[in-house]
Amino acid sequence: MGSGRGRSPGGEGKAFAIGNSVSDAEILHRTAHPIASEPDAQLARPADSEGWTIATRHDLLDTVDRTPLTAAARRQPEDPVRGGSDPDRRTG
Known about the structure:
- InterPro entries: HAD_sf (IPR023214).
- This protein is of the alpha/beta class.
- The protein has helices at 25-30, 41-50, 60-65, 68-74; strands at residues 16-19, 33-37, 53-55, 78-79, 84-85.
- The model is unreliable at 1-11 (pLDDT under 50).
């Protein structure tokens, strides 16, 4: 599919997906940060050729924590009402 991987407009850098079988390939192709978790043989081929992150059950949470999306979310200020970061919060 090439370097754009069929991403939807505005999706660059804003989402990750996790999959483990070839039936997950379409959504993995369309996300900015695809993670193949213990992929089956059919998913391992596109994961390798596209350079997707490959994780195991032992390092999946650490792998997700290292994605640019979750790193950015950790830098968001705490929302005292909702008890967490608010990615939709507008400043200005």
